[in-house]
Amino acid sequence: MVNHCANPQCCKPLHYLREGRVYVFDVTRPAAGNSERSARRMEHFWLCGVCSETYFLEQVEDRTVRISPRIQRPVSTAVLPYKAPQSIAS
Hints:
Helices cover about 5% and strands about 35% of the residues. The chain is mainly beta and about 90 residues long. Strands 1-2 form a two-stranded antiparallel ribbon. A two-stranded antiparallel ribbon has the order 3-4.
């Protein structure tokens, strides 16, 4: 069960699912006691609201999960002037 943020620098405890983002991945882990076998299972991960704005989780080729930064799109600072709608004369 998920009980904290998946970001190792944050680790905010999970109390409610109203903020943040939940990820579900099919993860492969080495089976206990056997180095040749591996166990696959669905695992849930959660990023808190603050971390989910900056990071996302992704699964890599070896079926492990890593945290990656989101690409920030530049925000335009130009503000267009307001143009009132034209009235239609009959």
